[in-house]
Structure formats: C-alpha cells, structure tokens
Amino acid sequence: NNQSKLAINMSAKQDYDCVVIGAGVQGSFTAYQLAKHNKKTLLLEQFVLPHTRGSSHGQTRIIRRAYEQDIYTQMMGEGYQLWAQLEKEAGVTLYRQTGLLVMGPETSGDYPLVKNTLLKNKVPTVILSRDNFHQHIPNVVLSEGHGALLDVTGGVLFADRALKAVQDQFQKLGGVIQDNEKVTEIKPGPVVKVTTSGGVYQARNVVITAGPWTNKLLAHTGFQLPLETVKINVCYWKEKTPGTYGVKQRFPCFVVTGSLESKEHIYGLPSNEYPDLVKICYHIGSKTDPDYRDLQTDTSDIDILKRYVSRCIPGLVPEPAVVESCMYTLTPDRHFVLDYHPNYSNIVIGAGFSGHGFKFGPVIGKLLCELSLGEVPSFDFSSFKIRRFQSHMKSAL
Length: 397
Ligand SMILES: Cc1cc2nc3c(=O)[nH]c(=O)nc-3n(C[C@H](O)[C@H](O)[C@H](O)COP(=O)(O)OP(=O)(O)OC[C@H]3O[C@@H](n4cnc5c(N)ncnc54)[C@H](O)[C@@H]3O)c2cc1C
Ligand SMILES: O=C(O)[C@@H]1CCCC=N1
Known about the structure:
Family: Belongs to the MSOX/MTOX family.
Order of helices and strands: HEHEEHEEHEHEEHEEEEHEEEEEHEEEH
EC number: 1.5.3.1, 1.5.3.7
Shape: globular
Structural class: alpha+beta
Function: Metabolizes sarcosine, L-pipecolic acid and L-proline.
Bound molecules: flavin-adenine dinucleotide, the ligand O=C(O)[C@@H]1CCCC=N1
Cofactor: FAD
C-alpha cells in the first residue's frame, strides 16, 4: 500500500550527481543542461506538473532584446539561438516573431536607455516618429511626450509548450522528474541530503530554483536573500472587433516604460491564447506569500490598466474579461541572482527573476549548469552575484 511504499522510499536514499529543486522554467532548463552533460539529475517539483501556482505557467511570454542594460540585450543574443535549438530538438514551435513596440517618455526614464542599448548592440530596430506611428500601429494612441520604437526581434514565446518541451527533452536524456514531492529539508555537506514528502535523496550538487519559495527553502541552509514576492493580476481584454490586435494580424507585443513622472509600467501581448482577448498587465504587484497567493486581493493595478486601455487602446473593452494570477520574485535592484550559496559551494542558487526571467530560461539553465559543474561560466555573471546585497542580507539562524 501507499504507506509502506512511502516508508520504503523514505529509508532508501537515492544518489544523484545533481538534484534541482523547482521545475519552473529555470529549474527545467538547468536540469536539461545537466543531463546534456551526462550528469545523473533529479528534478523535484512540489506540485503535480503542469501547475499554475508559481511563475512559469500560462500560454505566452514576451521575448525581446530591448532592455535598458547591455547585459540582458547581449544575453538574449545567445538566448534566441538556444530557443531555436530546443525548437529543433523537440520538433515544436516555441517562438513567434511579432516585434516588440516600446513606448515611453521620450527623454526621461527607461525609453532613451532602451533605445540606446538597441542601437549600440545593432539590434534590428525601427524608430517610429509621431507622424508615422499611426500608419504602422493603428488602434493604439501614443501618449503625449512619448517616443516609440520597434525591436524587430521581439515576439511571443509559447510558455506552457516550452516548459513541456524542455521537461520532455530532459527525460529523453535520462533525467528523472519527481513531481508532487515537496522538499521539506536540505542538509548541506559534501554530499547534500534532500528530504521530500516522498523520499530522501543524496547528491554532490544541488541547484535551488524555487521561484517565490526560494527563501522558504534557503531557510533550511541558514540563509536568506532580500527577495519580495508579489502577485500580478494577469488581465485579458476583449477586442471590440475580433482580430484588431491579433497575433495573426501581426500586432506586436508592447511595453510602456516608466519614468519618475509617469509610473505606467504596462505591457501587453497580441490576442492569441484566448480568442479575441489581448493580455495586458501592470508590471507592479502587491506583496504576497506564495502559499496564500489567492488571499491577496488588491486590484488597484486593474484600475490603472482600465484607465490606460480606455485612453490608449480604444479597440478594447476597458474592463478585463479574464483575470488570472501569477507571481514575481523581486530583488531590490530587479536583477537576477545566479550564484553559489555563500556558505556551501556545492549549492547553486537561481532566483529573483523579477518578472522578466522567462525569455532567459535557456541561458540561465546553461549558466546554472556551468556553475554547478564548477566550470568557468560562458558569460560574465558578476552583475548577478549575491554579494551585491551585503547590506540587505540577514541570517535565518
Ligand atoms: C504575469 C507574469 C508575466 C510575465 N511576463 C514575462 C514575459 O513576458 N517575459 C519574460 O521573460 N518573463 C516574464 N515573466 C517572468 C517569468 O515568467 C519568471 O521570471 C519565470 O517564470 C521564473 O521562473 P522560476 O523557475 O524562477 O520560478 P517558478 O516558475 O515559480 O518555479 C519554481 C518552482 O519551484 C517549485 N518549488 C518551490 N518550492 C519547492 C519545494 N519546497 N519543493 C519542490 N518544489 C518547489 C515551485 O512549485 C515552482 O514550480 C512574467 C511573470 C509573470 C508572473
Ligand atoms: O520580461 C518581459 O519582457 C515582460 C515585459 C515587461 C515587463 C515584464 N515582463
């Protein structure tokens, strides 16, 4: 019976080269890379897969090279190649090029930084003038004082499909996924002991990619990162005329960048996953505990979105037709954490993807794998090291 199976599992320790904790986009790509390097790898997930309770679910995500900082634009150079490689290996389409429309205060905040990064890194870009904006992007109103450009490489990633593809490839390479197994204890040491609701595992190396639950897991190792988890209301808005903002009509993904004066921080994707519904979200959420996400009921973001939609996207009904939930795990500077655990060099942490990590999944998986194998990382990850938070950190002991 189940009880005795559990008793047998709990007593028999199973050995792996590496245990990856958390089967979101980052853990799944890390496990896949480790298996590609012939490492005996276990990917643990607390929920039954696929699930909708973390940060990687949903049908779509934006992919883009448009960023304020060179490092992300450059990382995505390799990112696109690795996405294409997975598409080829798995025989599925994961990326649809739509372009990414960036709009924002022309001379302040993030817009001029993004423009500069794109041009400096020679990313195919079209700068739109106020005069020709309407001709290229009908049915969107460009706010007064805003500039607009198109990152031609931008588009949609089919997120759920991508997660399944990378997990399938991992298993084809001999990797093991145990879902519905929550990690309840991590005992660091030269061989790390990982206890779950279903068994006990040992590995020379562990990678923690637990998204919003990262600090709950790190508490077992006596360490905490300065992370904040927020809930995002994922809103879908109905087209007044079906197809006006459709992926098939090549309506682009878009981002409205903020500045000190205008705190819009809004982004959207063409209608695709639900017929005639355009996904538009606010990039700032309200603090939540991932185990009680649905108790966070703040909807002030939806009020901001309603005003924006009615002012700038006149072809949509300014009331969301569908609202789903997702979470960001924020660092104070909104940059990722990709590093060794400060006290245990055989535990690697990938966390704090701050609401923009999906597109980087293949690159992050590669880097976390390299760190775990003790290899020299293939790109300079100094911006992502934990020591930048020295003043924020506190011990959980
Ligand atoms: C609304 C929304 C829109 C976004 N849009 C974009 C976008 O357009 N483009 C983009 O690039 N990024 C976007 N992102 C960000 C991106 O989706 C995230 O950065 C990324 O999914 C984070 O992945 P993760 O693997 O770190 O976390 P998660 O997906 O949360 O994975 C962590 C996993 O760890 C598991 N876990 C936790 N604790 C345990 C435990 N004790 N035992 C076992 N398993 C455990 C969890 O169940 C979970 O499955 C968006 C995010 C949201 C919420
Ligand atoms: O990461 C992305 O591209 C999106 C859009 C901007 C805000 C967050 N996620």
